[in-house]
Design goal:
Layout (H helix, E strand, L loop, with lengths): L15 E3 L20 E3 L1 H15 L125 H10 L11 H4 L4
Antiparallel strand pairs: 1-2
């Protein structure tokens, strides 16, 4: 994390300026009042301004906003939000509640990964391998899930609102229990659905309520 350093020079002693040195208008909402005929004190104002500036300067700033999401969830130690992770291997990893929002995950390997509650909001998962993955409660809202391998994946309670598309994906043995699919997506998936999930024992077609 990069830190921005600031240096201020403030004087605690009251300053006095001659009204001849600081011309001001005798009218208006910002009119300054002189202590006497020749001078006014603004030491107190300067001190307050310096204190405010110093407090503000004590704040640390991250140059890359993505660093604020390091770790994503309670598991994992890598920055995964808003990143290009094309082809990266996450197979078998425990990535519960990991944050993959808006990331590029094309051909990324999540085979057998534990991704409960993970967020793939607006992510591009084209061609990714999510076979045997635990995706219960994962968020696929607005995600591109085309040509994804979801063989034997458990998607119970996953979110797929918005323009989420599973076009061209493999869903043999996938469990879609309590997944709120759009009607057009449900019809599409029912055309290719088959198999039974080895973990839950649920028939894929039945979890989709296929006719």
């Amino acid at each position: 994390m990069a830190v921005l350093n600031f240096t201020f020079s403030c004087s605690s002693k009251p300053q006095h300026l001659s009204k001849h040195q600081l011309p001001i208008s005798p009218q208006g909402p910002n009119q300054l009042k002189f202590k006497d005929e020749h001078s006014f004190s603004f030491g107190e104002s300067v001190s307050k301004a310096c204190l405010t500036a110093l407090v503000s300067a004590s704040v640390f700033f991250a140059v890359d906003p993505a660093l604020a999401f390091k770790g994503g969830g309670p598991y994992g130690s890598e920055v995964t939000r808003g990143q290009d992770l094309t082809g990266k291997d996450f197979s078998g990893k425990t990535l519960i509640k990991q944050d993959f929002k808006t990331s590029i995950l094309r051909q990324t390997n999540f085979k057998g990964a534990k991704l409960l509650g993970a967020s793939f909001f607006d992510a591009d998962l084209t061609g990714a391998d999510l076979s045997d993955a635990d995706l219960r409660g994962a968020d696929f809202s607005l995600a591109n899930v085309t040509k994804v391998n979801l063989t034997n994946a458990n998607l119970e309670g996953a979110l797929v609102t918005g323009n989420t598309s599973f076009k061209g994906s493999i869903i043999t043995g996938a469990d879609f229990t309590d997944v709120p699919l759009r009607e057009d997506q449900k019809e599409y998936l029912c055309k290719i659905a088959d198999g039974v999930n080895p973990t839950t024992g649920n028939n894929t077609r039945e979890t989709l309520f296929c006719k």
